[in-house]
């Protein structure tokens, strides 16, 4: 009875509160002026949720993951499938450009080395097209590219004012552009009530996280065969446009990160709680069951662990807590859970509960994690890089060739890994058939190699690894 009362009360506030001040008449550029009123109303909603525990502190909206700094340059490479790389914006600018190239394989274009995007105001505006929303497009800074997210088969660009544009495959409505084409090489604006902070473009559905901590999902909702509930809306309906996951609002939760798998979704809240929904096959929801979940539910085995980062592959997930311990769950047919060589790895291998990854990671404090299709990677506090999975290493393997430098971040694509060191240098390893290694070659490498296509005087700041395409942003070296 209490839970029903709380949900009823919070629904009223969620419907008229968190978004009340952000009505359709308020442009994104004006929303900072109303943020304090939004937060005060949100506090009312959160306090009713916390009524179940008088000692619980009310959740607060996430600190924006956006940064006020605008990248000096943005580089992309890999294979452009259905328009995932904006070829019209590419220009030579890398040191290794002369030894590589752009070439076609069927209907696909392969860019095997980093090429910069033409971020000139006129070129970018022309590429994005006319915008019909109420944002102040006359503001030069507002229309500058700030972030770029590479997904399974799509790409998202977020501008400095929080507007989001998407392009690539849209076969299941995963781009959130309404009743549009099955794919688009032309970017389409995704209208959302708040600035976008993070985008996760999965192979069948996608999620948009706003700076207010709200989560919107769209695309394939599931089926009796593939599993249902990955969008978190309590049904298996598919949506062509982003729809608010209102159960988070009702429960007084704010999302701080989200990752889309094949048919499941993993969400991290500002309170360090991990939630999952979607198909339960292979234990990918981490709740001991293999049943589907229509709504986001907590992963109980790591409740209270103060999780600080999550990552999801095709059918498995990772969670990193404050203590630097990594838990993994889901499918383990290629050793992607890092469970060790003692475990028989086959097509049915799985772990339905979060299990600490030990082996060489035991006793080390992990600071960053990443997940690819069926492999994963981790960075430790001392700057070591570990990789595992993809039928190569069933437990974490130390990348000894990088011990001369300190690795600070990592990203995983479909079958490759990118590592960033403290000097802003980028390294890659894995399968290079699609040009994702950025080495002016399509050969495979099992050892990390420096990506030399970033010009001297620039350092990589962020990177995003899609299945077959890559983007990174740079700043001027100090």
Structure description:
It is built from 4 helices and 32 strands. It has helices spanning 2-16, 35-49, 121-128, 246-250; strands at 73-80, 90-91, 102-105, 108-117, 145-150, 154-159, 164-169, 183-190, 196-201, 205-210, 215-219, 222-223, 227-228, 239-244, 255-260, 264-269, 274-278, 293-298, 307-312, 316-321, 326-331, 350-356, 366-371, 375-380, 385-389, 393-398, 407-412, 416-421, 426-430, 445-450, 458-465, 469-476. The strands form 8 sheets. Strands 1, 2, 3, 4, 31 and 32 form a 6-stranded antiparallel beta sheet that branches. The longest helix is centred in the N-terminal third of the chain and has 15 residues, at 2-16. The radius of gyration is 21 Å and the shape is globular. The model is unreliable at 1-56, 94-99 and 131-137 (pLDDT under 50). Pfam families: RCC1, WD40_RLD. Residues 135-392 form the RCC1-like domain.
Topology summary:
Blueprint: H1 2-16, H2 35-49, E1 73-80, E2 90-91, E3 102-105, E4 108-117, H3 121-128, E5 145-150, E6 154-159, E7 164-169, E8 183-190, E9 196-201, E10 205-210, E11 215-219, E12 222-223, E13 227-228, E14 239-244, H4 246-250, E15 255-260, E16 264-269, E17 274-278, E18 293-298, E19 307-312, E20 316-321, E21 326-331, E22 350-356, E23 366-371, E24 375-380, E25 385-389, E26 393-398, E27 407-412, E28 416-421, E29 426-430, E30 445-450, E31 458-465, E32 469-476
Antiparallel strand pairs: 1-4, 1-32, 2-4, 3-4, 5-6, 6-7, 7-8, 9-10, 10-11, 11-14, 12-13, 15-16, 16-17, 17-18, 19-20, 20-21, 21-22, 23-24, 24-25, 25-26, 27-28, 28-29, 29-30, 31-32
Helix pairs in contact: 1-2
């Amino acid at each position: 009875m209490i839970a029903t009362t709380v949900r009823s009360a919070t629904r009223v506030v969620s419907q008229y509160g968190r978004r009340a001040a952000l009505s359709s008449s308020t442009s994104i550029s004006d929303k900072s002026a109303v943020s304090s009123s939004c937060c005060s109303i949100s506090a009312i909603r959160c306090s009713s949720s916390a009524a179940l525990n008088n000692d619980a502190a009310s959740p607060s909206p996430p600190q924006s993951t956006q940064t006020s700094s605008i990248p000096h340059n943005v580089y992309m490479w890999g294979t452009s499938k259905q328009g995932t790389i904006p070829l019209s914006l590419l220009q030579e600018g890398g040191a290794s450009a002369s030894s590589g190239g752009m070439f076609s394989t069927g209907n696909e274009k392969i860019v095997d080395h980093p090429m910069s995007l033409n971020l000139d105001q006129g070129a970018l505006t022309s590429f994005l097209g006319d915008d019909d929303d109420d944002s102040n497009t006359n503001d030069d800074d507002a229309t500058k590219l700030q972030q770029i997210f590479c997904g399974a088969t799509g790409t998202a660009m977020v501008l400095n004012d929080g507007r989001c544009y998407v392009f690539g495959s849209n076969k299941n409505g995963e781009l959130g552009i309404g009743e549009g084409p099955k794919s688009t090489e032309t970017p389409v604006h995704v209208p959302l009530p708040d600035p976008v902070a993070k985008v996760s473009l999965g192979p069948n559905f996608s999620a948009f996280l706003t700076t207010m901590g709200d989560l919107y999902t769209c695309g394939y909702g599931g089926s009796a065969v593939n599993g249902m509930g990955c969008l978190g809306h309590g049904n298996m309906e598919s949506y062509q446009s982003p729809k608010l996951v209102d159960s988070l609002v009702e429960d007084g939760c704010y999302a701080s990160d989200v990752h889309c798998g094949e048919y499941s979704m993993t969400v991290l809240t500002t309170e360090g709680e991990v939630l999952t929904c979607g198909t339960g096959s292979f234990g990918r929801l981490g709740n001991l069951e293999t049943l589907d979940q229509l709504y986001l539910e907590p992963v109980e085995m790591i409740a209270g662990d103060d999780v600080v980062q999550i990552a999801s592959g095709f059918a498995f997930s990772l969670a990193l807590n404050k203590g630097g311990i990594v838990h993994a769950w889901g499918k383990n047919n290629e050793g992607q859970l890092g469970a060790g060589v003692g475990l028989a790895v086959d097509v049915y291998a799985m772990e339905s509960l979060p299990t600490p990854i030990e082996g060489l990671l035991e006793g080390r404090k992990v600071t960053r994690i990443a997940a690819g299709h069926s492999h994963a990677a981790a960075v430790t506090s001392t700057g070591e890089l570990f990789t595992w999975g993809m039928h190569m290493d069933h437990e974490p393997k130390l990348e000894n060739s990088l011990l001369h430098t300190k690795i600070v971040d990592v990203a995983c694509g479909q079958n490759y890994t990118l590592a960033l060191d403290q000097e802003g240098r980028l390294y890659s390893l894995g399968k290079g058939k699609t040009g994702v290694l950025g080495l002016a070659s399509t050969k495979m490498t099992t050892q990390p190699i420096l990506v030399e296509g970033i010009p001297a005087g620039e350092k990589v700041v962020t990177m995003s690894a899609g299945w077959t395409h890559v983007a990174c942003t740079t700043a001027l070296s100090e």
